[in-house]
Design brief:
There is one protein chain. With 300 residues, the protein is an alpha/beta fold. Helices cover 40% and strands 15% of the residues. It has helices at residues 26-35, 51-60, 79-85, 87-95, 126-145, 163-171, 183-188, 193-199, 214-223, 227-232, 247-255, 275-292, and strands at 2-7, 40-41, 64-65, 69-72, 101-105, 150-153, 177-182, 204-209, 211-212, 236-237, 261-264, 296-297. The strands form two sheets. Strands 1, 2, 3, 4, 5, 6, 7, 8, 11 and 12 form a ten-stranded parallel beta sheet that branches. A two-stranded antiparallel sheet has the order 9-10. The protein starts with a strand and ends with a strand.
Length: 300
Amino acid sequence: MSVKLGVAPIAWSNDDMPELGGDTTLEQCLSEASQAGYIGIESGGKFPKKSNELIPKLEQFNLDLCSGWYGANLRKNSVKDEKIAIQEQLNLFKDCKAPCIVLAEVSGSIQGDPKKKLSTRPQMDEDEWKNFCIKISELGKYLEDEEMPIAYHHHMGTVIETQKDTERLLDNTHDSVKLTLDTGHMLFAKGDSKKILNDYNERLLHVHCKDIRKNVLESSLNQDLSFRDAFLSGAFTVPGDGCIDYKPLFEVLKKKNYSGWLVVEAEQDPNKANPLEYAIKGHKYLTKTLSDTNIEILNR
């Protein structure tokens, strides 16, 4: 088996908080991502939305588009409306030969609200859960037919946050609804990434390698901070700089023959955590840990 290493642009500029890295150019982000050793990058707010503009940018820095975020509103929208809303990104990703769309339901999300504590995140009752699973299954089948599958991202502050939420979603949706496992968000929600990898490997399509600073996490949970205040306090960091041991996780990936992207991602203030420095740190750690696990890294 072999994997590819990518990085998310959120370390350079944050779409939810434009003041973080607001002056950082797309060219700097792409150049430093390539310099740090990555062959792929996820999309971000500063990326062109047309493939005839984005593809030359990616080629200039020898990068592939390895996916990107889509915030769905299926709790409010019809599936028909959501299909219309996703078309621009769907067409862009197909043109760029991305492997999937990283999708999360954001209706009612408190992830960007600094005044709302994580304990107040939205919840669904039994009827809404049933309806939501039906709708996301329909969207998943549509996108699978378009050869651009959903890789669902459990996320702090949203209706699908915990390990239990994630398992319930996967247990009650069509198998076209795949999974993005985010190691940082899973630990933040007190979940077990290794168990998810073992139990749902057939649904795993994408992995976000996000680490956690344990002391900041414990403080954030004890104080019931907002998601924004937690990451501004430094809850997240890159692999190798936090408390997560990735070797046991990679051993499961090897056993399950995962061959996809491992994407380094960490919401941080770029004025406090230099994006290039941390991108290099994450790449070095993953390279060593994958080597120790006898997993090959594809360079092209």
